Amino acid sequence: MRKGYRQRPNADGEFGDDPWACHTQSVNQPNDPSDQYGTLQPMCMRVCQGPTCGVRFPVAVANVRYETCHLCQAPTVVSDPIDRLDITNHTSAPPRRQITAVLDNVRSAQNVGAILRTCDGVGIRRVLIGGISPTPANPKVIKTALGAEADITWSQHRNLLPAIDALDVPLIALEATPSSVLFDATLELPAGPLAVVVGNEVSGIDPAIQERAHLHVHLPMRGVKNSLNVAVAFGAFAYGVR
Q1: pTM for the complete prediction?
Q2: What is the CATH number for 134?
């Protein structure tokens, strides 16, 4: 492995260079200090010229390390530039109701980071992080949140119960329980500010927190699984709240 590069396991669990990690260390790292996550770099599609490979993948234009295919070592060529959306034109959505997100023992740093990024996207400005949930002090949270954590007010609580009791707004538990109702477009939630809590990836929401919830809701599941990843479920709820 060449100096200055990192390796990550691929989809098959094998270690190899990651062409999508345009923000990792490389010999062509841009000098723009504001682009710490690599999201501002010009991107393009490269295509492997290997007769049995032909993989097509996105990569930073400045990253010449993928002039050779990372899978078969054959040459690659630039196929198409990627015109990325100027999101500054899409950040003026009207304000929505105030929502507080409550993370009850969400153990995965990546899930916490994804939830924080979703909070930023839907306009949730306050997050309570409880129990063993990693906080934005964790590098893995920062990496997944891509800077969203810096614009959100969050607080850490080893025991969430006092913090929840102090909220003084209806609490919605995103959890399938005997009393939960289907969350869809017809569901009328309490008017005004509210809080939504999601729980541990294995055990769900603390029973004591469930008891404090104004309403339990679950998402429709039409496959063989009975639940979604917690960050995905949170996103579906957060964007569905009217």
Answers
A1: 0.77
A2: 3.40.1280.10
Share of the chain above pLDDT 70, in %: 79
The residue assigned the tokens 């690659």 is 76
Q: Tell me if 58 sits within 8 A of 43, measured CB to CB.
A: yes
Domain count, the chain: 2
* CA pseudo-torsion sign 133, 226, 190, 161: negative
Which one-letter DSSP state was computed for residue 216? E
Calpha distance 241→124 (Å, rounded): 11
pLDDT band at 101 (very low <50, low <70, confident <90, very high): very high
Within-domain flag for 26? no
Q: Which two tokens stand for residue 38?
A: 């690599």
- 68 lies in the same domain as 94: no
User: What is d(CA 145, CA 227) in angstroms, rounded to the nearest whole number?
Assistant: 23
